[in-house]
Amino acid sequence: MSNAAAPADVRSSRRSTGGPPPAGGARPVPGGPRKSRPGALRPLLFCAPFIVLFLGMYVAPIVYAVVKSLYTVRRSGLGLTAPTEEFDPLGNYLRVFDDGAFLSSLGRVALFGVVQVPLMLGAALVLALLIDSRSARGKGFFRLSSFLPYAIPGVSAALVWSFMYSPQSSPINRMLEPTGVGIPFFDGDLVLWSVANIVTWSWTGYNMIIIYAALQSIPAEVLEAARMDGASAVRIAWSIKVPAVRGALVLTAVFSIIGSAQLYNEPVVLQPVSDGAVSSTFTPIMSAQSAIAAGNYPYAAAQSVLLAVLVGVVSFVFFTFTARGEQE
Fold first, then answer.
1. What are the angstrom distances between the C-alpha of 308 and each of 106, 185, 264?
2. What is the pTM of this model?
3. pLDDT tens digit string along 255-272?
């Protein structure tokens, strides 16, 4: 339609505006550009409690520990005056690497993690596969009974096991008396594995539940197709189920590595009845606690920061290694 044929009201509106409408049919917005509404900040208000708690309960202690580790406690004279803290960025960290007790605790925890974590996750994987098997009966009972040790607080579990380990009251050694065999649970070379037994008993069921939940995500069609092809239950478990729960195994492994570095409750509870086998520096956290008891907070902070960095590096290397293996 030509301009001449346009309705009169349209032509008059063009003349009143002083020209043709904007290109593309866009019309000017009355009142100019829109201003930001106050309601746009409402999502931040909902996030504010989390941000405050995150900064106050997580970030602030880390920053304080790092800053505190940069100072060194100085004592002058005969110790009659109050100690002072002097800024010495490398003093505590150099002392950490010369502290044989702390380095021994790191090596002890590393050995603990290398041996205990694979055994615990292997047991959790086997339990999850058995409960998930087609012929399993009473799955709910076995899930609950396997998870029950995790529901018991770690300190309470350690107290029960200290009774089981005690040379005076150990029912295990009493049952072994007719054979003339006794297990020295608090022997210097065996006490670490006595602690590992408590941790394994407490956490195997927790890891089993995570792996079992991952097994439930495997499509039933895949398992049925494998059975129709003649695959045995062992073959299905090894070739289908285990690769399918790889992510859950990696997750539980990282949790276990971090938990091994944080080993504290079990050895502290066993320490009074261990006849000196569990020292005050048995684990890195116990070593830092000993420094705090001595009033040397900066040195304890340096130990904590170094432990956190080591755990972060190990976790990163483990994640990188497992991700590379999955891609290959």
1. 12, 30, 15
2. 0.80
3. 999 999 999 999 999 999
